[in-house]
Amino acid sequence: MTDEAHEDHATYEHVDEDWQTALAVVAHPDDMEYGGAAAVARWTAQGKKVVYVMVTSGEAGIDGLAPEECGPLREAEQIASARVVGVDTVEFLGHRDGVVEYGLPLRRDIARAVRRHRPDIVITSNFRETYGGVFLNQADHIAVGRATLDAVRDAGNRWVFPELLEEGHEPWNGTRQIWAAASPESGHAVDTTETFDLGVASLEEHRAYLAGLAGQMAEPREFLEGFGRGAGTRLGTRFAVPFEVFPLR
User: Given CB 3.0 to 4.6 Å as the disulfide criterion, which of 59, 131, 139, 156 pairs with 135?
Assistant: First the structure.
């Protein structure tokens, strides 16, 4: 089945929400907001804890702003954005925006975060080469998503990255599933009808970044409505966020 056929005809199952803690690992500030923040708002309203980890500070994301100015600005916008949906902890790993490489350093840094936060669920962004077989994905997204899949398992193996043990980070095998948001291979989704407006408000906190964009992505409500309605139709709700689910146990 092609991506387009999968997108047009398959229905989604509801994700498992019987968990308490989640760790979201994505490449850039704004990656969670372009689709996933409304789901996070739902979960924090349920009393769940969600922590954000940004692999970069998004410092290469605004053409008219030098990285040394852009990075701190985008970090501040991400912290404000996360607060809108009930996320109090946002961490930045300091990898260079735009040139993130899949490899052992990235896997180790993500594994360290998993061991520190000990989540039930790990969330990342789409790491497939396209969105729906139409739009090309970005290299950092692909590298971070693929590294996250491996790093979650690395976090449970004491013989991988033994330096983490020396730092005091004991192995963690408690992650039950990894979820890749907005994947064209999604088979599950979460109903975000009640928290859709919070998702829009969260994206709107990225003011400097949005000001430098053009087209539909510069209009938070318009973009998220199109994205959310399509997923909601397949879940049987007004709005939804889709996920590709990888069970670990």
Answer: 131
